[in-house]
Structures are given as structure tokens and as C-alpha cells.
Specification:
The protein has about 140 residues and is α+β, with helices and mostly antiparallel strands. The chain is about 50% helix and about 15% strand. The chain is built from seven helices and five strands; from the N terminus they run H-H-E-H-H-E-E-E-H-H-E-H. The protein has helices at about 5-15, 15-20, 40-45, 45-60, 95, 100-110, 125-135; strands at about 30-35, 70, 85, 90-95, 115-120. The radius of gyration is 20 Å and the shape is extended. It starts with a helix and ends in a 5-residue tail after the last helix.
């Protein structure tokens, strides 16, 4: 699907979103914070918990819940690190046999970010509300 066709389809099905995308009137970051600044309970939030947080943040900020987006990525994990490998005839876990695994884990943890987004004119209000609701540290 070409960009033009996508914009037409969006305008027909979700007009407000189509208009915002077409005019580049996109939501902005109110919060963008690393894994180390996010409480464990927030890091492990599922989709429903994210939606509940959006409603609570919006309520505290005096906005419609549709104006707040909370994105909590899955906790960083490297499933392959538990795989068995043979090194010099000895079966070992990959994470025990390779220093690369710890490097990949560190890189993945360093890249992880929780984001809260809203219309530009509400960034400061949403930031304060999100930090209160989610218990996250500063940017």
C-alpha cells in the first residue's frame, strides 16, 4: 500500500489519526526513561495495565484517555542464552560459554525505554502525572 492510499484509508476509518499523520501533528514524548528508573511492577505491566495507566494519567492531567499513550516494552530477555552448546566436547549453557551473551544482555537493557506520549501542548502536565502514576525517575 502506498503512503497516499494509507492516508486515504486512515481518513476514512480513523479521521483524527489520519489528519494528525498527514499534518505531522504527532504525539510527543512526555516521558522517555530507562529500565533502571522504572519500578519492577511497571516494567512487567501487561497491555491492560498500560491502558489502565493511560486512563489514570489522563485523569490526573485532566485529559481524555485517548490523548495519552503508555508504551512499556517487554522486559529484556535473551532466550537463546539458556541453549546448550558443546565447547571442547563439554556441554555448557551458551551464557556460560560466551562472553558475548552478557554483552548482548547489557546492550538490550541499555536500549530499553518506557515511553509516555501525548499532544505537544500537554507534555509537561502529562509528564508530571505519568511520573506520579508510574513511579518513574527523571528523563
Amino acid at each position: 500500500m502506498a503512503d497516499h492510499d494509507l492516508l486515504v484509508a486512515l481518513r476514512e476509518t480513523v479521521p483524527e489519526l489520519g489528519r494528525r499523520i498527514e499534518r505531522r501533528d504527532l504525539y510527543k514524548r512526555a516521558v522517555w526513561t530507562s529500565l533502571s528508573d522504572v519500578p519492577a511492577g511497571t516494567v512487567d505491566a501487561d497491555h491492560e495495565a498500560e491502558r489502565a495507566a493511560e486512563r489514570e494519567i489522563a485523569d490526573e492531567a485532566g485529559l481524555d484517555p485517548a490523548q495519552v499513550i503508555v508504551d512499556v516494552p517487554s522486559r529484556p530477555g535473551l532466550k537463546e542464552s539458556a541453549s546448550a552448546v558443546v565447547v571442547d566436547g563439554v556441554v555448557q549453557r551458551l551464557e556460560d560459554a560466551s562472553e558475548l551473551v552478557s554483552g548482548l544482555r547489557a546492550a538490550e537493557r541499555g536500549r530499553w525505554r518506557l515511553g509516555v506520549y501525548c499532544p505537544a501542548e500537554h507534555r509537561e502536565t502529562v509528564e508530571r502525572a505519568a511520573r506520579d502514576v508510574l513511579g518513574v525517575g527523571s528523563i
